[in-house]
C-alpha cells in the first residue's frame, strides 16, 4: 500500500471519528442547555420526592403555576442564614394571592387548596399573608417537616431556576412529577 493510501485512509478514519464524536457531543450540549439533573438530599418533599431520588429539571421554565415543583436559589433571608444550596418546593401562592394555613388546611384566597400530594395536613397556623408582585409562596409536601415559605417568606420570581419534571432514579420510582 502506498503512503498516499495510508495517509488518505487515516484522514478518512479521523474524519469519521470526529463526525461520530460531534454527533454524540452536540445533542448532550443541547440537552444540557434545557435540562439538568438533581439529587434530593432531604425529606421535605415526601411523599412526592424521597431522599436520594434523582430528578430531571426543565431549565427552560419561566411561568410558575400553582402546584408546580420548582428549584430555586436561596432568598436573601436564607442567604443571611448561610444557606447556599438550591431549594426544591411546591408553588402554592402566586403573586397577589392571600395565603392562610389553619385547621389542617392551606387556604388560597379564602378557599381550601385540594392537596392529594401532601404527607400529612399541616399542624400549624400561618397568615393570612398576601404574596407580593413577582414573588411566590412555596411549601414542601411534607408540610410538618419542611423549612419553607411559612418560615422564611416569599421567593422572588428571578430566583426560580427550573421545574422538576421527572424522577429517573431509582428506576422503581421513575415517573412524571405532578
Describe this structure in words.
The protein has 178 residues and is an alpha+beta fold. The protein is built from 3 helices and 12 strands; from the N terminus they run αβββαββββββαβββ. It has helices at 3-34, 76-80, 149-152; strands at 35-39, 54-58, 69-72, 87-93, 98-102, 105-108, 111-112, 126-130, 135-139, 155-156, 160-169, 175-176. The strands form 2 sheets. Strands 1, 2, 3, 4, 9, 10, 11 and 12 form an 8-stranded antiparallel beta sheet that branches. A 4-stranded antiparallel beta sheet has the order 7-6-5-8, with no helix packed on it. A hairpin with a 2-residue loop joins strand 5 and strand 6 (105-108). The longest helix has 32 residues, at 3-34. The radius of gyration is 23 Å and the shape is elongated. The N and C termini lie far apart (63 Å). The mean pLDDT is 90.
